[in-house]
Amino acid sequence: YEIRSTTGSGSFRQICSQVSMEGSFNSLYKPVVIENYTEITLSVSGTKYPLIGYRLGANYRASKIILNTLSILQTTNDNYILTLEKNPTLSVAPAWSSISNSSAEYSQGTGAATVTANGYILASYLGKGGSLQNDIFDFADSAMSPGFYINGTPEPHWICITPLANNSKFRSVLSLNEYE
Q: At 163, which helix (H) or strand (E)?
């Protein structure tokens, strides 16, 4: 670009009108699994609880993690509502753990913390009750990925669950795809 002025000062603003990409992002990924085999009891019907949270570690800005599948095993015969949320407000600050040889971090709900304010809901599902019912939610074609806020803080995504009966019991396994 060349800007010339014959009358003194001025301004120029360039706006990108198109972004093109040939192909897709690197489909070579490393699977990362977060297991929560410990049965958790969600005491109050209609109350939303954080089940599993995941995010990028603070030193992994160039990495990308995408939710692949979620498996929920309910050990009581209760219906539930499941949501995938970006940064919900929790009643208790989560404790984040790193995963060996991965850019991902995770936090697991215990049934003690609740969601006090919804985050941005990325997906929502209804789960049907059944004795020892295993529900699998597939996100394989999704591009939802946690990143970083402008201040450099990692952005968490949470799987949240609202039981529709008192004392509902769940176990869960989360599978992520990690791209470097």
A: strand 157-163
Which DSSP helix (H) or strand (E) runs through 45? Answer: none
Spatial separation of the C-alpha atoms in residues 156 and 17, rounded to whole Å: 31
Q: Tell me the whole-structure pTM to 2 decimals.
A: 0.81
- Residue 44 burial (C-beta neighbours within 10 Å; 0-12, 13-18, 19+): middle
Region of residue 57 (phi > 0: left; psi between -120 and 50: alpha; otherwise: beta): beta
Of the candidates 77, 61, 40, the one whose C-alpha atom is nearest the C-alpha of residue 160 is 40
Instruction: State the DSSP string of 85-146.
Output: EES-EESSPPPPEE-TTSSEEEEE--SS--EEE--EEEEEEEE---TTEEEEEE-TT-----
Q: Which residues of the chain have pLDDT under 70?
A: 1-5, 10-27, 131-133, 140-141, 143
Per-residue pLDDT tens over the stretch 65-98: 988 888 888 888 889 999 999 999 999 999 999 9
What are the Cα distances from residue 140, in Å, to 5, 11, 69, 83, 127?
A: 53, 46, 7, 16, 19
Q: Distance (Å, rounded) from C-alpha 161 to C-alpha 52?
A: 10
